[in-house]
Amino acid sequence: MGNSILTRRALFTKLLKRLLVNAQEKDPLFEKYSRKIYNGRRYSSLINPKKDQTSKSGSETERVTNVTSGLAPYTGTWSTSEALHLLRRTGFGFQKKDVDTLLGLSMNQAVNLVLTIDTTPPAPPVNHYNNEKPDENGLPYGADWTNDAFITNDIGGNTNGNRTSGLSSWWLGLAFNQDISIREKMTLFWYHFIPVDFEFIKQSSNEYCNTNSARICYKYIKMFRDNATGNYKSLIRNMATQPAMMFYLNNQANTKSAPDENFAREVMELFTLGKEEASQYTEADVIQAAKVLTGWRVQNLNTINEATNFVDKLHDTSTKKFSSFFNNNPIANTGAGELDLFIDMIFSKSKVVSEYICRRLYRFFVYYDIDANIEANVIVPLAQHFVANNWNILPVLDKLFKSEHFFDMANRGVFIKSPLDVIVGTMRTFNLNYNVADATNYEAQYDLWNTFNYAMYDMQQAMGSIPNVAGWQAFYQKPSFHEYWINSNSIQRRYGLIEYLFYGFDKEKNGLITRMEVDVIAFVKQFPNATCKDPNALVNECIKYLLPIDFSMGAKDAIKTQTLLTGQASDYYWSSAWQTYINNPNEMNLQIVKTRIRSLLLTIVEFAEYQLM
Fold first, then answer.
1. Is the peptide bond before 49 cis (omega within 30 degrees of 0)?
2. Pick from 101, 238, 240, 215: nearest CA to 156
3. Given 125, 151, 314, 429, which residue has the most CB atoms within 10 angstroms?
4. With pLDDT > 70 as the criterion, what percentage of the chain qualifies?
5. What is the signed CA dihedral for 337, 338, 342, 348, rounded to 10 degrees?
């Protein structure tokens, strides 16, 4: 992926040394604002990668101070910092034009804009693979494959594999090209919460899956995008008979003579009720639920009209009797109607369901730690709001993102970015070429997107790839939660890829070369010229945009001297160089300022704080 001044090993060694040194230093800003102690805002798991992640939490995760803010409307300052916080949490990174847009609005208007989703569907994934491996159905290069079915198991397996890979790349492309709205982040929320694994479904033994799985995985993701801020109960009903989920959790094999409890268990434990103390469904309830769910079958998968239908002869016709948790509710034989009765029964436990989902939303968008204050001041009233709005998710997001709690300083700069937030966010923030110059060169475009999806796979997150039905550990696994993103391998890959992007490399495919390099001059030129010319203002502005928490003046001066002044004492050493470049932007003058600005930006993004949001 190109040349770099530091090898990954050397970079990681440098990083660890810096972490060890900084772990001993006091950081007054972090101590003032943090929800947790992170040994000087450095992750203790980096210092000891072999630390037992499942052990009981200790002093390093004890709360510094109580956070008592709730859902009252935020009335504080609306500035660049607040706009950046909103964009980082509701999207993947940000672009400065989006920050400028939000700053022209009030806080309420800004949240309204972020929550307003353009329902225009994106262009579907296409045949990008034909030049290397011709489509086994004869589908032309560049054509939409989402409604192109293979009629047998014998022909189409290779093409289905290429389509599956292309689907992941296409989905990542949507994240790169997101608009200012929350749609792509919400799509990921639903996927991590109610996931299927593309490769698992492709490898399933179900008939025609090996040749047609990509099409149903596409429709599964489309379901989430179409319902990004819609009705949660309707989504659960739709999901229950989606072919991809039918195969993933094996309800396709659930029959009266051989009941399969997999989907019945997970729809309660993971997708609706949770497994916390208030969720008191029993093992007997799982058995009864599995009986309710018998008889549904994906049919005609080898046509463009595949559907999940109810097959009466496969259904358990007995009366299903549920526990006292469900008020001893019986579900009598009504055939296909039992599924709706079952979902109604689950949602009748409205307090349990709503609070569980609100905790999942909170841990995805705000922070992982939910103590008694957060439960009482945020989760409970938010859940009540959820139920009062008939399970529509949009009013819940609206109340959360306009609250004093969301903008509380305690919730800024404490959340470790996911690989998607780091890589997609970095590339969007620095305006890299995630789209190739020729939009009709589908092979080059999908290859570029796939390069970064594969890179994130090595960091333990990728589109369409999930470790298990519970999703990515960082969003649910106690006690470490987001610390699961960080280990000795993943942190090395994070910093390594970012550095590659700053020094640049060429990506060549199908006769097209795409240069992947941060244009550091263009990045700082987004700021007024007066800011660019003043080294103190430039350092301050770059830190404001790139890091979630400010640095002390002493730290900023040290960064300025090390980078823009290259060790010199006078600010004039930078101001003169910048003005000379502006007056005469020849190659020599450009390289002088480019080298120093790259040093500044790379120094900032190599701070551990850049891994936080």
1. no
2. 215
3. 125
4. 90
5. 50
